[in-house]
Design goal:
The protein is of the alpha/beta class. Helix content is 32%, strand content 20%. The chain has 13 helices and 20 strands. Bound molecules: inosinic acid (IMP).
Length: 445
């Protein structure tokens, strides 16, 4: 029975959480395979809003395993806060499992993330400052600390000592810099800085987290194998998206993991043949948080319409998202990169009320060349101008539509244009934030 991956096809915030929540109905496990608490999912169920950063969206299904795979970087403090929040809301977390091989985000990773951003100044990537990049960097340097290390005091202390050793200089620089900023009245207080990183107190804190997380720590790859081998459906839930992919996205303005479907194998411990379907989630327009190229970005009425109607503010950082038209050049690239078998388009309702809707179908380079494909050279992308096809807008509200036939003709034409262009059917359309505000199209299987 199939593994099914759900991935973002733009720069994140496509609404993957809601799609996961819907597609998980007949699954037995939902597995996150990369990223950390830089992600943010909002799910509205029975009028109640749930926000998650680390825990997979599937947690609301109490009868399914909800798995944090080995490819995720885990901030144990945040994880415990989310567990506590769910418990308070009366939601059981007994089905949660955390891979013993997942790497941890340590306090110094958060400081180093901030240090890196401050150092880059205007050239900063605009990270979420959650310590994601530094944690993955330590993983690659083999200085990382894993979830399983929380259960062995001696090892934990030794590993923290080794990891801290080469960071002291960078942290001292950060402290000096912050003090200077503070003197100039420009302190950036987004992340509380404690430059007295103390081996003993970090070890104590992390041992305590380990003690509380122990019931959830497991061999999650084996769990996936038993579910798949028993013929059960397993969902691999991506965070962030293709254009933020460390290898294939708009480097260096990317995250430090691989959000594409292929990474589900590495980040969960399954084989490529375990994944039969790949659902790409695409917002009806484009948004991006943080810095980096964004060819179809708007600074006009249409952009403000998207921002306001779409409530485009980051779930994790609260930052306003940059908004723009749907970029079909980038979408076709992401669709291919992921081996996408179906698309779910979210937030179509946000476009209602616009006189016309544009979609980018090619770029023009600075030198005037026509670019039909996503350019492989970053400098070309930075200077690319999109060329649009203008489609009819639809004035009517569509949030109550539940069937394709209920949609205004212009909205249906929009869906057809997009799926024809990228060569993949749109199987699901979101017309509002609620769980029931969706249309399963005739392409849905
Ligand atoms: P990091 O993942 O915190 O290192 O940030 C790297 C880049 O990815 C920044 O541009 C972030 O804004 C972006 N990013 C990280 N997570 C998300 C997400 O869940 N949605 C949208 N953008 C994200």
């Amino acid at each position: 029975m199939p593994g099914l991956a759900i991935v973002g096809t733009q720069w994140g915030d496509e609404g993957k959480g809601k799609i996961t929540d819907l597609l998980a109905r007949d699954a037995s496990a939902i597995v996150r395979f990369q990223g950390g608490n830089n992600a943010g999912h909002t799910i509205v169920r029975d009028g109640e809003e749930f926000k998650f950063h680390l825990i997979p969206s599937g947690i609301l299904h109490e009868d399914k395993y909800c798995v944090i795979g080995n490819g995720v970087v885990v901030d144990p403090k945040i994880l415990l806060e989310e567990i506590e929040g769910l418990r308070k809301a009366g939601i059981s977390v007994s089905n949660l499992r955390v891979s013993s091989n997942a790497h941890l985000i340590m306090p110094y990773h958060i400081l180093l993330d901030t240090a890196g951003e401050l150092k880059l100044g205007k050239l900063s990537i605009g990270t979420t400052r959650r310590g994601i990049g530094p944690s993955y960097a330590d993983k690659a340097l083999r200085l990382g600390i894993r979830v399983q290390d929380l259960l062995d005091e001696k090892i934990l202390r030794k590993k923290i000592m080794a990891a801290l050793d080469d960071k002291q200089q960078a942290l001292r620089e950060l402290a000096v810099r912050r003090r200077k900023l503070q003197r100039e009245g420009e302190a950036d207080d987004e992340v509380p800085i404690d430059d007295r990183l103390d081996l003993h107190s970090i070890t104590e804190d992390y041992l305590n987290y380990g003690h509380r997380l122990e019931p959830y720590i497991a061999d999650t790859a084996r769990l996936c194998w038993s579910e798949l081998d028993a013929g059960n459906k397993v969902i691999f839930e991506g965070a962030q998206a293709a254009l933020l992919d460390l290898d294939h996205g708009t480097y260096p303005f990317v995250t430090s993991s691989n959000p594409i479907a292929g990474a589900a194998c590495v980040g969960a411990g399954v084989g490529p043949t375990d994944i039969e379907q790949v659902w790409g989630v695409v917002k009806a327009y484009t948004t991006r948080v943080g810095a980096g190229p964004f060819p179809t970005e708007l600074d006009d009425e249409a952009g403000r319409h998207m921002s306001e109607r779409g409530h485009e503010f980051g779930t994790t950082t609260g930052r306003p998202r940059r908004c723009g038209w749907l970029d079909l050049v980038a979408l076709r690239y992401a669709v291919r990169l992921n081996g996408t078998t179906a698309l779910a388009m979210t937030k179509l309702d946000v476009l209602a009320g616009l006189e016309s809707i544009k979609v980018a179908v090619r770029y023009r380079s600075k030198a005037g060349a026509v670019l039909n494909e996503f350019p492989y050279h970053q400098s070309i992308l930075h200077n690319a101008t999109p060329e649009y096809v203008e489609l009819a807008g639809f004035g009517d509200e569509i949030s109550d539509c539940r069937k394709e036939e209920d949609l205004p003709p212009a909205a249906r034409e929009y869906l057809t244009f997009v799926s024809d262009f990228v060569g993949v059917p749109i199987a699901l359309v979101g017309v509002g934030p609620g769980r029931e505000q969706v249309i399963w199209t005739s392409a849905a299987v």
